[in-house]
Write a structure and sequence with these properties.
Layout (H helix, E strand, L loop, with lengths): L10 E8 L2 H12 L2 E4 L7 E6 L2 E8 L6 E7 L3 H11 L2 E5 L7 E7 L5 E7 L14 E8 L2 H12 L2 E5 L8 E6 L2 E8 L10 E6 L3
Parallel strand pairs: 1-4, 5-8, 9-12
Antiparallel strand pairs: 1-5, 2-3, 3-4, 6-7, 7-8, 9-13, 10-11, 11-12
Helix pairs in contact: 2-3
């Protein structure tokens, strides 16, 4: 499905942060048929993944060895949103300025340890293709702090909370909504899962 505008407070984009951008380009090209274009002014440190000439995700070269997918929430003002984060129990990790003319962005950590981005579009709306093979289908949080993250995102992004039951999960699955639109999910990390870290994970549709 082609998208020209995203709901305020919902996820609008995702970036892969990795030290080996060339390996990522080859891997996702083979997996999803993605092509990539380097963004002007980035010096090769930032690229856009595309499918059928539509942007599906971003690729950012990390300098510290970090490797993870980071989903981005659409916000009206990065400055206004990041100013509220400490009082809500989160931590501001980075503010990346104008994002090479595409968007103003920041990265934060929620009270449960999940890392998420905030994105204020300037010239680029975000993902232009969603909900079809090779594009973002769903975004969900794995965390040990369900009550804290529910409160955090409800206050930061205006999300409402509902629950669903699935037989393979010990605890209820959290569904975050804006009005009638389901925008994200959260899974409570179960005791028998060991020491897996809290994280936001980006799920892509496949055939």
């Amino acid at each position: 499905m082609e998208v020209t505008n995203h709901t305020q407070g919902a996820f609008c984009f995702a970036e892969l942060l990795t030290p080996d951008a060339e390996l990522a380009k080859r891997f996702y090209g083979a997996l999803f048929g993605w092509t990539s274009i380097d963004v002007a002014g980035s010096g090769g440190t930032y690229s856009l993944f595309q499918l059928r000439d539509k942007t599906v995700a971003g690729l950012r070269r990390s300098q510290d060895g970090a490797h993870r997918w980071v989903p981005f929430l659409k916000v009206e003002s990065v400055d206004a949103s990041t100013a509220r984060v400490p009082a809500l129990g989160g931590v501001l990790l980075s503010a990346d300025g104008d994002g090479f003319g595409l968007a103003r962005t920041a990265t934060i950590c929620d009270p449960g340890g999940g890392i998420v981005g905030l994105r204020e579009a300037t010239s680029h709306t975000g993902a232009e293709l969603v909900d079809e093979p090779g594009s973002i289908w769903w975004i969900e949080l794995l965390t040990r702090e369900i009550p804290a993250v529910r409160m955090f995102y409800s206050n930061l992004a205006g999300w409402e909370v509902s629950e669903a039951r699935f037989p393979h999960l010990e605890n209820p699955y959290t569904v975050f909504k804006i009005g009638q639109e389901s925008v994200a999910g959260a899974i409570e990390i179960e005791r028998n899962w060991g020491t897996i870290p809290s994280r936001w994970q980006v799920l892509f549709a496949v055939e």
